[in-house]
Amino acid sequence: MPRNFWRILLIVLGGGAFLTAACNSETETAVPAQEHTYLFCFWNVENLFDDHYDGRENKADKEYDRWFADDPRALHLKLEHLSEALIALNQGRGPDILAVAEVESVRAAELLRDALNHRLADPSLHYTDVLMKNLSAGRHIAPAILTRLPVQRDRTRLHGSRLRILEGHVKVGRHDLVVIASHWTSRLTDKEGTGRAKYGDQIYGLFRGMHKSNPFVELLICGDFNDGPLDRSVTDHLHATGRSEEARNGSLLNLFADKDAQLGFGTHFFGGRWHLFDQIVVSPGLLDDLGWSCKTESVRTVNTLYNPHDRHQRPWRFGNEHDKAPRGYSDHFPVTVQLRVFP
């Protein structure tokens, strides 16, 4: 009889013992699936307007709307500087997920995407999606999300009436990462902080709704909060803490809560001192080893984008049409963190 007949017979007669031995043999041991690591970045890119004149009425918007539409060299220089700084991150690949603030329009975000892709020789690294909704909330600037990863475009939405709160969904395999990119009310126009408290309340309400439906929701909140990690809009209204044990019990974890703005983590220099306005906050679902996970210890401020002649080493701003000094990038530093996806 053929040799295979006896092999099949042994399998049938040996049953579980044979199968157990096979599974425990060195050659049959399953190799754990490899986790994937991605770089997330948030950056307030300082008045990124597009190449169309749209007749913006706000005084600040009107200046940049006209300037970049009439002077393509200025817009090109702005995009060149931003894309140069961003592609330098992540070992020359740029962030895998990029959230930005102070973007005039979808058109402006697409111009940034194109400038980034122009620097990437490998087409597999190109940014394929821009998630954004045009918004006029006092100023005509809004958040946007750019990524090379798969997205759920139809779930992109703005939250709140005239609030700069953008929700986007990035999906790797079967794992959905919710990103909320936001830009809270300026201290210049909201001296008492009521507007920023409203932002905190609104975003925390979004988290509570998601968490109620799915306690393991994997949510990353980022933005220019225009308040520090220990200000009430962040601690009492957004309910973002620096204690991971509290976050695991239903609160949010602020990755910058224990960072010092004066000791290398400051993102914006205003009023003669450093501020940590740009922050990343995560839900409990990003603190485990299931699906999306956050490497909390990897969070940092990219504080190298300063004018080498500036003794304060402040963010090297691009400035406005009337500035005569050499132009830099933005008046804010970017912030980054490493994310992982477990299959």
Helix and strand topology:
Blueprint: H1 3-14, H2 16-24, E1 36-48, H3 59-70, H4 72-87, H5 89-92, E2 97-103, H6 106-118, E3 129-131, E4 142-147, E5 157-158, E6 165-172, E7 175-183, H7 194-213, E8 219-224, H8 232-237, E9 240-241, H9 244-247, E10 252-254, H10 261-265, E11 268-270, E12 273-275, E13 278-282, E14 291-301, E15 335-342
Parallel strand pairs: 1-2, 7-8, 9-10
Antiparallel strand pairs: 1-15, 2-4, 3-4, 5-6, 6-7, 8-13, 10-13, 11-12, 14-15
Helix pairs in contact: 3-4, 4-6
Question: What would you say this structure looks like, in words?
Answer:
With 343 residues, the chain is α+β, with helices and mostly antiparallel strands. It folds into 2 domains: 1-30; 35-342, Deoxyribonuclease I, Chain A (4-Layer Sandwich). Helix content is 29%, strand content 26%. It has 10 helices and 15 strands. It has helices at 3-14, 16-24, 59-70, 72-87, 89-92, 106-118, 194-213, 232-237, 244-247, 261-265, and strands spanning 36-48, 97-103, 129-131, 142-147, 157-158, 165-172, 175-183, 219-224, 240-241, 252-254, 268-270, 273-275, 278-282, 291-301, 335-342. The strands form 3 sheets. The chain has a 7-stranded mixed beta sheet. Strand 7 (175-183), helix 7 and strand 8 (219-224) form a beta-alpha-beta unit. Helix 3 (59-70) crosses helix 4 and helix 4 (72-87) packs across helix 6. The longest helix has 20 residues, at 194-213. It is globular, with a radius of gyration of 24 Å. The chain starts with a helix and ends with a strand. The relative contact order is 0.13. The model is unreliable at 1-32 (pLDDT under 50).
